[in-house]
Amino acid sequence: MREIVKVHSTSDMSSSPPTFIKGTCTDMCPVRERKLREKEGLLHLLELPIGTPLHPAPEAHPYLTVKSFSRSAAGQHTPYQDDLRPPAILYKTVCHLLTNIIERQGMEWCIVYDFVFDRLRAVRQDLVIQGLGSVDSIMVLEPTVRFHSYAGYRLCAEPLSKFDPTINRTHLLECLKQLLVLYDEVQLGCHDTPGTGARAEMEALYLLLTLGYSETLSRSLHLPRELREHHALKTAFAMSLAMWCGNYIRACALLPQLSPLLMCIAAQQLPLIRRRALQVMSCAYSSHNLTFPLSTLQTLLLYKTKGQVESDCRHYSILVKGNAISFWKGAFQPDTHGPCLHVECVDTVLQSCDLPKLLLHPAKMKNF
């Protein structure tokens, strides 16, 4: 199923606007929840000071405890004002999660991801309950989209028991679609403002998430000129267009030209690109006598090692003979694409990135 944005302006709604509650909580976690979780021993390790010894009932610190996500249930009472965080506190919470928590050392990153994921869901929940405006929502949703984009790549090799890429992608698309609707409503990016770069990045990200879809290509063509001429959007558009045209080798060649965050998303699309490329090559180079150099295929499709090439070829029933590949159109099995793998050029770029800066302040980074 194609995951395409349907823009519905709020001005089209004929019903009267709903009444929202205005939050008054001045901490990252309401006092009521903080005391309850302290009493029940429900504090997360990431909410305790570093080096805190194990204790059956640790103290809940106001500057470390973060409101957790609570699923809505039938019959649940309307939240109190002091249980909801106003926009400034919500953004403060996001900054805390993506600076102090995201790079916590000595802990498996899957655990860090689960904690940040849950707390960001709670932030979004507070946004919805309060019916906060476009600007406030955008300030929270942009870093949330970046977090899910980065996490999808960083944890791509983890087993399903530790990381579910489908759930991560679902929340990424949900946040991104909300952002695109908000951008359209407030018409951000129509002038040369700092917001232009952020919106261009998000529009580019959507192009890469829906790589090769004519609907998203069409959407990009109707964006304001300042956005269309932004390097991030131009490169993502070229990559998506190459995919639409069936030029899979060019799509791979464009990946290293993207910004670090966009490279993370594009790398997650490589299994799809590789499957289609190998299917085409199985017909184009089909022969019982001729072979194709394995090292060349490794370079063209951005495999990190020869072992990865061999593994993918076996997945698609393509015969590998030593350092060469023997294509035969009748043998290819296109049912499912291979696994998502780490890419050398992406790993190299990410190693030199300041992660909090990447997730919170991309506009201040070097222009790619």
Describe the secondary-structure layout:
Elements: H1 31-40, H2 87-101, H3 109-130, H4 134-154, H5 165-186, H6 194-209, H7 214-221, H8 225-228, H9 231-245, H10 248-254, H11 260-267, H12 270-284, E1 292-293, H13 294-300, H14 306-315, E2 319-321, E3 324-326, H15 344-351, H16 355-360
Antiparallel strand pairs: 1-3, 2-3
Helix pairs in contact: 2-3, 2-4, 3-4, 4-5, 4-11, 5-6, 6-9, 9-10, 10-12, 13-14
What structural keywords apply?
single chain; mainly alpha; three-stranded antiparallel β-sheet; 16 helices; disordered C terminus
Give an account of the 3D structure.
The chain has a 3-stranded antiparallel beta sheet with strand order 1-3-2. Residues 1-14, 188-194 and 363-368 have low confidence and may be disordered. The relative contact order is 0.09. It starts with 30 loop residues before the first helix and ends in an 8-residue tail after the last helix. It has 368 residues and is mainly alpha-helical. The chain has helices spanning 31-40, 87-101, 109-130, 134-154, 165-186, 194-209, 214-221, 225-228, 231-245, 248-254, 260-267, 270-284, 294-300, 306-315, 344-351, 355-360, and strands spanning 292-293, 319-321, 324-326. It contains 16 helices and 3 strands.
Summarize the structure.
The chain is built from 16 helices and three strands. The protein has helices spanning 31-40, 87-101, 109-130, 134-154, 165-186, 194-209, 214-221, 225-228, 231-245, 248-254, 260-267, 270-284, 294-300, 306-315, 344-351, 355-360; strands at 292-293, 319-321, 324-326.
